[in-house]
Amino acid sequence: MSAVPPSASQNTSGFHDFLPLMADKLGGDGLIGELCNGFNLLMDAEKGVITFDSLKKNSALLGLQDLTDDDLRSMMKEGDFDGDGALNQMEFCVLMFRLSPELMEASQFLLEEAFEHEFRDFH
Question: Domain EF-hand spans what residues (predicted)?
Answer without folding.
Answer: 67-102
